[in-house]
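Notes from the 1:1 (GR / supervisor)

We went over the backlog. Supervisor wanted to see one worked example end to end before approving the batch request, so GR pasted a single chain during the call. The sequence is below; no edits were made to it. Supervisor asked that the structure be written out right there so they could see what the output format looks like.
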Amino acid sequence: MKSRAGFTLIELIVVLTIVSLLLSIAAPHYFQSVQRSKESALKQNLATLRDAIDKFYGDQGKYPEALADLTAKRYLRTLPSDPLTQSVETWVTLAPPADASLPGKVYDVRSGAEGKAADGTAYSEW
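Structure output shown during the call:
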């Protein structure tokens, strides 16, 4: 009698079942860690932008007219992208309060991303 090399169908099904079980356990953890890293990068980018806006105001005596002024005046090398939308165009700028009568148009910046973070707060509120 010849011995046949290879796997039986049952062995292959068992191996595929084990692999799919391991993937179903690992995949949610992977996607949660990716989301947490994007949220962390968003917080850092917002802090960098806000710091540059404050420095601009401190040096120029007015707030910038647009975020592009921060790179034009060399307060930032490049405008950071919003990690959730992966674009520099989605930043939402806020004007100074009307009662403050401060010159300039960019007083604060927020993310234009929709949705909520893991802690339940909206990205647009950060």
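Supervisor's comment: The radius of gyration is 25 Å.
Batch request approved.
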